[in-house]
Amino acid sequence: MEILDVLTNMAKTGRLGPVFSGAEWSDVTAALGEPWDIGTMSRNRKWPRLFAYGDLELSVCRCRKVSLICVQTWRDVVELPPSVVAGKGTFPEGLSHVDVVSALDKAGCPWEPYPPLTFGDQRSLVAIPTKANFTFEIPEGEEPVLNVMGLPGNGHDT
Fold this sequence. Notes:
The chain is an alpha+beta fold and 158 residues long. It contains 3 helices and 12 strands; from the N terminus they run αββαββββββαββββ.
């Protein structure tokens, strides 16, 4: 499976294997193992916490449910749990806006520009079925390159 297939499938279904907004944290760790614990998202509270499986980052609320999901794609190599991407867990970076839009169109996943996150050297689009967000960096004099893809939170992050 290629990285565009993974991201397009996430945009259509709102899932990456056992990971979805509202998933029980115990189910995720049972399927994927123990993650890196990046830490709290607030100085004053222990929860919500941010965890990572390579470049798959998950916010987990105090009632131990996944509340936010993102895939960091700006690194030289994107790492995802091999068990949820058909055995291949590393992918090259550098997905262009044209590549992402083409993959979404080919998969029949409607999308539209996302003005609230489009400004300066940044462009964003949202996949309509799940409200998945693709945010691109626009290096000076170059085409936009995918920086992060995220699935929206469920509004429950405490």
